[in-house]
Amino acid sequence: MTEVAYPGRVAIAVLAFAAAMIRFAEIPSHAAHGAGGAVVVALAGWAGIVLAVVVMLRPWRAVLAAGAIAYAAFIVAGLAGGQSSTFLELSQLGIEIALVVACTAARALPALGQRWNRSTVAVLSVLPVSVLALATAAVVNPPAVATAAARPKTHKTTSVAQRTPVTFGSGLSSTGNTDEQAELQPDVPLSAANQKLVARQLVIARAAAMKYPTVADAKRAGMILAGKMAPGVGAHYLSIATTLQGVNADGSVNPASPGSYIYAGTSDDSPIVGLMYESIVSSDTPPSGFAGPNDHWHRHANVCIQYRAGQIVVPFAPDSDVTQAQCQTVHGDFMAKTIWMVHAWVVPGYESPKGVFSHDNPDVHCADGTNGVNAVGFCVHS
After folding, report:
1. Given this model, what pLDDT does residue 382 score?
2. How far lies 147's CA from each of 36, 309, 313, 378, in Å?
3. Measured between alpha carbons, how far is 253 from 259 in angstroms, rounded to an integer?
4. 166: which residues sit within 8 A by CB, 6+ positions away?
5. CB–CB of 336/381 below 8 Å?
6. Phi, psi (rounded to 5 degrees) for 111
7. In this predicted structure, what is the pLDDT of residue 307?
8. Burial class (CB in 10 A: 0-12, 13-18, 19+), 329
């Protein structure tokens, strides 16, 4: 039951807190593949918070042993599941290994640091500060967050017939995949209750859209461009902060929290034209979404993404016969299936003539007013 000297307690608490920071930052990437994985990661994060608090209040050797064992198990489980080379996950691995070593060392030498003078403590204080700086950099690093959120845990390739190029997170095609074809179904009459509810939801969605009226506003809010500008579907700026909140636990939509904001181009003055809502729950069944049956959700297949210069880049056309091997040749992350998503054309002046939840909006064109696209499906002039 011997207590640990103060310097050792601080070192362990800082490492545990830093590990928790990174674990919490990883929740979105695991939630995209099922709630179970997200819960486990969240519990690992809270384990770090508990260890940090307990070791400062009751730094007993039994607590240190439990911490070392728990984080050794987390490390083994992570390596068994396939360790990524992202900055976020490498930082997590390094910090958790250091935490196991610190707990083990403090348990074996609990008095270490007890006789250090103030000068020594002052010099060594740079270490916990550096750990927290590393954890902060890993958490806020956009490539780590965005790529992790998009990366699947398995890589099963689904063969899909070659179609007209489409964009990641949007997708415009002449025929579309099966989900997109479902979005072309005509609206059906709604009950009075559903009419009232969906009207209220769309008012909230419109207010959410107008919070960021231009691309410049989206950038200031920390959103990142996913793909590029494409006719009919615009330029999607992904909001990491609101993606997790866009769909409630019961599958209904939270209209105030769209996952992406859609703009008429990529220049700073490009106006908002619509929204996209995304469900991070991995399921073959789309969420219930907005009130009534008229919001037909879609997914894309065979998507390869890269992260370059603060953007999610799409080197190949989704919904085509792109393979995981092809994606690896460009150092991309392959997705056999994306998450569920639906567009909402709620911005005044850009209402889609095909319906508020239509997949594409014929009134959205490239910057030059045409629909000229490159081989991937993006505007030549955006």
Report:
1. 63
2. 20, 13, 10, 21
3. 11
4. 172, 173, 176, 230, 300, 317, 318, 319, 377
5. no
6. -90, 0
7. 83
8. exposed
Q: What is the mean pLDDT of residues 280-300?
A: 89
Question: Percentage of the chain surpassing pLDDT 90?
Answer: 32
Residue given tokens 């409630």 in the structure block: 248
Residue with more model confidence, 16 or 214: 214
DSSP 249-301: TTSBB-TT--SEEEES-SSTTPBEEEEEEEE-S--SS---BSSSS----B--E
Q: Tell me the three state secondary structure of residue 308.
A: strand
**Is pLDDT larger for residue 56 or for residue 344?**
344
Task: Using DSSP, state whether 310 is helix, strand or coil.
Answer: coil
Averaged pLDDT for residues 205-225: 95
Q: How many CB atoms lie within 10 A of CB 133?
A: 12
Say which residues have a Cβ less than 8 Å from residue 89's Cβ, sequence separation at least 6.
26, 78, 83, 144, 148
Residue with tokens 């499906």: 377
Tokens 């703009």, located at residue: 263
What residues are paired with 43 via a beta bridge?
none
Would you mind telling me the total number of residues written for the chain in this entry?
382
- What burial letters (b/e) apply to 56-67, b meaning 16+ CB within 10 Å? eeebbbebbeeb
Does the pLDDT of residue 138 top 60, yes or no? no
Q: Residue 328: helix, strand or coil by DSSP?
A: helix
Going by pLDDT thresholds of 50, 70 and 90, the confidence category of residue 7 is confident
Please report, as a single letter, which amino acid is at residue 341.
M
End-to-end CA distance of the chain: 66
How, if at all, do strands 311-313 and 224-230 pair?
parallel
Q: What 3-state class would DSSP assign to 126?
A: helix
Q: Are 227 and 314 in contact (CB under 8 A)?
A: yes
Q: How far is CA 37 from the centre of its chain?
A: 14
Look-up of token digits 């009207």:
199
Give the tens place of pLDDT for each residue, 267-276. 999 999 999 9
